[in-house]
Automatic annotation (TrEMBL):
It is found in: Cell membrane. Keywords: Cell membrane, Membrane, Transmembrane, Transmembrane helix, Transport. It is a multi-pass membrane protein. GO terms for molecular function: ABC-type transporter activity. It comes from Sulfurimonas paralvinellae. This is ABC transporter permease. PANTHER family: INNER MEMBRANE TRANSPORT PERMEASE YHHJ, MEMBRANE COMPONENT OF ABC TRANSPORTER YHHJ-RELATED. Belongs to the ABC-2 integral membrane protein family.
């Protein structure tokens, strides 16, 4: 009951009394996410293309040869459309091209030749740019008066709306920054206001104090997340929620706790709010860059791809995208939950010990 009383009567009320801080949090959970979703575009790099070629080569290979670096990697061959579809579902391939057995024969005889195209439209700009490249290739062949038609099937984001991807990614980045900064500030304000010694004299165990202060900020972020999902993601952008909302909230809770551990560390080494801001940016920006929030993991240098395994935000982003866009079942989300939980335990344990030495 003591920890509940501290969270509600002290920390949350203290947050609500700080009007500017409340407005700042509301801004990040509303306007910032909306602006990111409405205005940011991503240029594709190292897009992975898979293909099924039942023609035996020839014309199909000439088309594939037009896909080259830096926009595309070397196309990967698959034995069947089922294998290719599974690779797209598992995020191993972004674009799938299928040449059926009659493609080359119809192409050379002047009949209607068809290319089937599968697009993972989660990241709409990359998939649509690939589609545009293939259209240009087709136009080159059409100059030779060969009839050719491309049929595309967009997966996970049927309208190829880039706003859905960017708005969701921005929300996850906002959650990361806010939980770290808010957790650190709630301790550092005690130092700045000269109430740190008074806090130490409270008839409450230091562990309860640390838990109450950190979990109060987790509650604030969780409330902001619900507000953003309801008003911005599902409201303004009409983002599809194909999976479980409660699975997303549980993943967000676990991730917020792991990020709160980073905030505890920042609070332990910071003397004022300015240092909190500086250290938070220095720590969190590399984690965001390595998470796939702004640059897909597969487009990074191999060294950075390895380092990204130590970013809890990577697992949070991949898990959230699987819930929203792919509708992945809860039981199949265990790799993302495992990554967040393991790294979360380590981060929160370290931050808890670091701040605990000041009590």
């Amino acid at each position: 009951m003591r920890i509940f009383a501290m969270i509600v009567s002290k920390e949350l009320l203290s947050f609500l009394r700080s009007v500017m801080l409340v407005l700042l949090v509301i801004y990040f959970f509303t306007a910032d996410v909306y602006i990111a979703g409405a205005g940011i575009q991503i240029k594709p790099r190292n897009v992975v293309v898979g293909y099924v070629d039942e023609t035996g080569g020839g014309v199909s290979q000439k088309i594939l040869a037009r896909l080259h670096k830096p926009e595309f990697r070397q196309p990967i061959a698959f034995l069947s459309q089922k294998e290719l579809s599974n690779a797209i579902f598992n995020k191993e391939v972004m674009v799938g091209i299928i040449f059926d057995s009659d493609f080359a024969k119809n192409y050379r005889s002047g009949k209607k030749a068809q290319i089937n195209l599968l697009l993972d439209a989660t990241a709409a700009s990359q998939s649509l740019t690939t589609f545009s490249y293939l259209q240009n290739i087709v136009f080159d062949f059409q100059e030779q008066n060969f009839p050719l038609e491309i049929k595309s099937h967009k997966l996970f984001n049927q309208n190829a709306d880039n706003h859905t991807f960017m708005a969701l990614t921005e929300l996850l980045s906002v959650i990361t920054l806010l939980i770290v900064i808010l957790t650190a500030i709630v301790f550092v304000k005690e130092k700045e206001e000269g109430t740190w010694d008074i806090m130490l004299l409270m008839p409450v165990d230091s562990k309860i104090t640390i838990l109450a202060k950190s979990f109060s900020q987790v509650i604030i972020v969780m409330v902001g997340t619900v507000m953003t999902v309801g008003f911005v993601l599902l409201g303004a952008f009409d983002i599809p929620l194909n999976g479980s909302f409660w699975a997303f909230m549980l993943l967000t809770l676990l991730y917020s706790i792991s990020s709160a551990g980073i905030g505890l560390f920042v609070a332990a080494v910071s003397k004022d709010v300015m240092q909190v801001a500086q250290l938070s940016i220095m720590i969190m920006m590399p984690l965001i860059f390595l998470s796939g929030a702004w640059t897909p993991i597969y487009a990074m240098h191999p060294l950075f791809q390895t380092l990204s395994l130590f970013s809890p935000l990577r697992y949070y982003i991949e898990g959230t995208e699987s819930i929203f866009f792919r509708g992945t079942a809860f039981v199949d989300l265990w790799p993302y939950f495992s990554g967040v939980v393991i790294l979360g335990i380590l981060l929160y344990w370290y931050g808890f010990r670091k701040i605990g030495k000041l009590f």
